[in-house]
Amino acid sequence: MKHRSILALLMACAFTGCMKDEDQYKDLLGNREIIYPGLVSNLKAYQGNLRIKLQWNPSPDPSITKYVIYWNNNADSMTLKTTGSNTQDSVSAVISGVAEYVQNFVLYTFDGEGNRSIGQSLSGVRIYGPLYVSSLTNRIVDAARPPVLEAPGTYKVYFSPADTLLNVATSLSYTDATQQLRTARIDAKTDSVTLEQVPAGAKVALRSTYVPVPRAIDTFTVAYSDTLTLD
């Protein structure tokens, strides 16, 4: 009987202690429960030229009223209103004017009461711009296969293999025999292009375009270079 009394006393003390802790936490929280709105899914980043597109699928939580995105060490932010809670939909935000270095982006969902979700981060996202462009070069004409005169005024120009993952295309611009500006285009998977009505001694300007990563939202263009003279 004595043991039962001691056990009952211990249980009462434990219960009283729990109630006391709960009261203490309620005081700290202002007598309100912490509510975390639902999280989005499939948060992804697509880089561009000093800008970025973030894309995600909405949370099924119908209480969410807006999204807030932070970057630049939380110094900059963007707010978007929600358009629904269908998880099959796609939501995107394009952020422009982002400095060209590695950035971290954090997305929060908010409900109508101002409750904020746990932050969802995309860390180490590189932003591309003029510095990246300065590192690019135009695609090289194949020195082992000089341009071939196939007919009067018609040349076939051969190129060295391109980086098919990053190189999009190369444009060749020249003034033809009638003094009209012409532009031919060759994609990264093609190794030759035919130029027509080319006067002897014409200079052909080359200009290549690239994407820094697959599925980038912008292409980056190298400055023209007059590297090809057709005799």
Characterise the protein shown here.
There is one protein chain. With about 230 residues, the protein is mostly beta strands. Helices cover about 15% and strands about 40% of the residues. The protein contains two helices and 15 strands. Strands 10, 11, 13, 14 and 15 form a five-stranded antiparallel beta sheet that branches. Strand 10 (about 165-175) and strand 11 (about 180-185) form a beta hairpin. The N and C termini lie far apart (about 115 Å). About 20% of the residues are buried. Residues about 1-25 have low confidence and may be disordered.
In short:
By secondary structure, the chain is mainly beta. 14% of the residues lie in helices and 42% in strands.
Structural class: mainly beta
Order of helices and strands: HEEEEEEEHEEEEEEEE
Q: Specify the biggest β-sheet.
A: 5 strands, antiparallel
The Cα radius of gyration reads: 31 Å
Q: Count of DSSP E strands?
A: 15
Helix percent reads: 10-25%
Question: What overall form do the CA principal axes indicate?
Answer: elongated
The number of helical segments is 2
Average pLDDT reading: 88
Q: Give the low-pLDDT segments.
A: 1-26
Q: State the separation between the terminal residues, measured CA to CA.
A: 114 Å
As a percent range, the share of strand residues is: 35-45%
Which quaternary structure do these chains form?
Answer: single chain
